Amino acid sequence: MADRHNRDIDRPLAPAPEALPTFCVDAHAHLEIVTNTAPDSAEVGQVIADARAVGIDRIVQVGYSAEQSQWCVAAANHWDSVILAAVALHPNEAPIVSSFDSDFGIITKLAKEPRVRAIGETGLDYFRTPPELREKQRESFRAHIALAKEVNKALVIHDRDSHDDVLAVLQEVGAPEKVVFHCFSGDAAMAKICSDRGYILSFAGTLTFKNAPELREAVKLVPAEQLLVETDSPFLAPMPHRGHLNTPAQIPTVVRAMAAERNTDLLEMTEVLSKNGERIFGSFAPGSSL
């Protein structure tokens, strides 16, 4: 997984967009890759300050390995009015760790922390994982689903080139109450299936890419209460800054794109996304719990 989670430090930082009319939530970020620093560092604080300046005052920091999930929890505990954590073994990580049982044991323990509000990102990725490792990936996905149901927290799904199998596994074992498709990458037909099943679809900067008309069709179909917005920072900076270093401060561009596609007032769109974030992940306030 090292190649996926290394960033090019020479990439320019995407310039700040115009602020939103009210505060909103970045539902999926990887601040440790943005900053390459400790969870309580000044650099993380600056990313948070930059986000707040444009209307993003809450961030879900998402896990992809045992060690990095520990970073997520430490960040959530330190920045305890801003950050909540998700913990998991990424679908590309799970089949290749030296001991899945040991690493998943760490995830299971972290999942019970009060500021951990989701199990993710888990799921399936057939783009990077070869066929011979995909059954291990599916086994990991099932284990994470079971954990999400055990601790009654949201399940955050990574789905790349694996739409049918992700949906099939969820049907096979039974989905948790809250299912979030991170960086939704399906088409309108898949969005309809997910919406009918009550899943939450989270849209990222890819919504603004010229080669993603299917995402713009999909975002129009999702009931408002089943929408989230995210950066997946430091990846997927929205247009016109595709290829730049992405941070939570870029959320306003994606929210504006969502509002435009749905023909919705920007303030209304922002308020809906903010409320959805709190409903799915719970309060970000210090001392809060689900």
TrEMBL record:
Q: Which UniProt keywords apply?
A: Hydrolase, Metal-binding
Q: Which Pfam families match?
A: TatD_DNase
A GO molecular function term, named singly, is:
hydrolase activity, acting on ester bonds
> Could you tell me which InterPro entries the record lists for this protein?
DNase_TatD-rel_CS, Metal_Hydrolase, TatD-like, TatD/YcfH-like
Per the record, its GO cellular-component terms are:
cytosol
The protein's name is Unannotated protein
UniProt source species: freshwater metagenome
